[in-house]
Automatic annotation (TrEMBL):
<keyword id="KW-0804">Transcription</keyword>
<keyword id="KW-0805">Transcription regulation</keyword>
<dbReference type="InterPro" id="IPR009057">
    <property type="entry name" value="Homeodomain-like_sf"/>
</dbReference>
<dbReference type="GO" id="GO:0043565">
    <property type="term" value="F:sequence-specific DNA binding"/>
</dbReference>
<feature type="modified residue" description="4-aspartylphosphate">
    <location>
        <position position="56"/>
    </location>
</feature>
<dbReference type="InterPro" id="IPR001789">
    <property type="entry name" value="Sig_transdc_resp-reg_receiver"/>
</dbReference>
<keyword id="KW-0238">DNA-binding</keyword>
<dbReference type="InterPro" id="IPR002197">
    <property type="entry name" value="HTH_Fis"/>
</dbReference>
<dbReference type="Pfam" id="PF02954">
    <property type="entry name" value="HTH_8"/>
</dbReference>
<dbReference type="InterPro" id="IPR058031">
    <property type="entry name" value="AAA_lid_NorR"/>
</dbReference>
<dbReference type="InterPro" id="IPR025943">
    <property type="entry name" value="Sigma_54_int_dom_ATP-bd_2"/>
</dbReference>
<dbReference type="Pfam" id="PF25601">
    <property type="entry name" value="AAA_lid_14"/>
</dbReference>
<dbReference type="InterPro" id="IPR002078">
    <property type="entry name" value="Sigma_54_int"/>
</dbReference>
<dbReference type="InterPro" id="IPR011006">
    <property type="entry name" value="CheY-like_superfamily"/>
</dbReference>
<dbReference type="InterPro" id="IPR025662">
    <property type="entry name" value="Sigma_54_int_dom_ATP-bd_1"/>
</dbReference>
<dbReference type="InterPro" id="IPR003593">
    <property type="entry name" value="AAA+_ATPase"/>
</dbReference>
<dbReference type="Pfam" id="PF00158">
    <property type="entry name" value="Sigma54_activat"/>
</dbReference>
Length: 441
């Protein structure tokens, strides 16, 4: 049985030291990843199982100490080895406080490096096995999704059952809940991940162009068709075609979709010759398709063809325990992108986020964190959050207030959210502008 090579991440802004370390470690039969900055290292840590981190301390923008602290908080089981050309007693103490297991001073010999790495990796083997076993039942990351709530686990359990077959899947959920992320997780975590993944927003394609865009067309099929052209179905051959906002598809397109699902073949616009297709279709909607069926806007037979497997993505208000994990994800993403720093959020600001109802779901949360990162100078506080979140109404812990008072406060909050736009406020409140004006008076 061949043992897996340990993955070692080396971080140093000096390219010569980086290459020297990589050459030594490869000769010692380790697998290495290189990063010339903390920013680059974070992306490797996010997507790769790392057995040992080796980092310099003195680096521009974000230094090695911040990387050590971040790794200690988010990946506590990864041993950390520091290599630096600026040794000092104070620096060594700070390094060990940040979670490093050893400290090498440049220049060092290959034998010193070998001993330090071997010691760190050997001590970690037992812990690594424990980490793998313990993480499985409480998985917090799946594809690009994060969560630990029961509703999140329910979604990932279904993904596990469908990712390695080509059963048709219908994903339901409110706008902003991450339906496309679910579709991408099905595709990219399964055995067809190397095949194409084509995402199509049906609502963004004009109705008169939907058929040509999806199925392709032949030269002369209509005015402007100057050549043969493949559609999204042909582009997704062998892989996955994700049809978002499927409820907006025209009835003509629905008829051809039904045939594609039943017969595994399509016909280009203007052609009489059917073509075989081998793809998995994942559709998504935030609409009530059963209501569309009643209104004769959606084919019932197509609905049942699409719902071989159905996944309902819960709104964020039903999985509030996942908010801290989502906040960490977005802080990492936008902190690195905008500030080249690792930002944190205060407990008070996090409490505000956990209290909010999130009608815009995860997309609204991401936008709020994106804004907060831009506005913050350091630790993200309540002051850095959007105004409509700062002044969130809390129901009193004791006692009650009249309905008119609560209604007044809620209307004020909606107007604050829309920045005084009465049309948008009326739409959110689901009343007409005249009724809103009466309430304002």
């Amino acid at each position: 049985m061949t043992l897996r090579k340990e993955n070692i991440l080396i971080v140093d802004d000096d390219i010569h030291i980086l290459e020297l370390l990589q050459r030594h470690l490869r000769s010692l039969d380790y697998h290495t990843f290189k990063a010339v900055s903390v920013k680059e290292a974070l992306f490797i840590l996010k997507d790769t199982f790392i057995d040992l981190l080796i980092t310099d301390i003195q680096m521009p923008e974000v230094d090695g100490l911040q990387l050590l602290k971040f790794t200690n908080e988010h990946y506590p089981d990864i041993p950390k080895l520091v290599v630096t050309g600026y040794p000092s007693v104070t620096g060594a103490l700070e390094t060990f406080k940040s979670g490093a297991v050893d400290y090498l001073t440049k220049p060092f010999t290959k034998e010193e490096l070998r001993l330090a790495v071997a010691k760190a990796v050997t001590n970690q083997h037992g812990k690594s096995q424990t980490r793998k076993v313990q993480k499985a039942p409480t998985q917090t990351k799946y594809g690009d999704m994060v969560g630990a709530s029961g509703s999140f686990q329910k979604v990932t359990n279904i993904i596990d059952r469908v990712k390695d077959n080509k059963a048709t899947v219908l994903i339901k959920g409110e706008s902003g809940t991450g339906k496309e992320l679910v579709a991408r997780a099905i595709h990219y975590t399964g055995k067809f991940s190397r095949a194409p993944f084509i995402a199509v927003n049906c609502g963004a394609i004009p109705e008169n162009l939907q058929e040509a865009e999806l199925f392709g067309y032949i030269k002369g099929a209509f005015t402007g068709a100057n050549e043969n052209r493949n559609g999204f179905f042909q582009a997704a051959q062998g892989g996955t075609l994700f049809l978002d906002e499927i409820g907006t598809a025209s009835l003509a397109v629905q008829t051809k979709l039904l045939r594609a699902l039943q017969e595994k073949e399509i016909t280009k616009v203007g052609s009489q010759k059917p073509e075989k297709v081998d793809i998995r279709i994942i559709a998504a909607t935030n609409a009530d398709l059963m209501e569309n069926i009643k209104n004769k806007d959606f084919r019932e037979d197509l609905y049942y063809r699409l719902t071989v497997v159905e996944i309902t993505v819960p709104p964020l208000r039903e999985r509030k325990s996942d908010i801290p994990l989502l906040v960490d994800k977005f802080l990492l993403k936008y902190g690195v992108e905008y500030k080249d720093r690792l930002l944190k959020i205060s407990p008070e600001a996090l409490s505000v986020l956990e209290r909010h109802h999130w009608p815009g779901n995860i997309r609204e949360l991401e936008n709020s964190i994106q804004r907060a990162v831009i506005m913050a100078d350091g630790l993200i506080g309540v002051k850095d959050l959007p105004d409509y979140l700062k002044y969130e109404i809390e129901f009193p812990q004791t006692g009650f207030v009249p309905l008119k008072v609560m209604e007044k406060e809620y209307v004020k909050r909606v107007l604050l959210h829309t920045q005084g736009n009465k049309t948008k406020a009326a739409k959110i409140l689901q009343i007409d502008r005249k009724t809103l004006r009466d309430k304002l008076h």
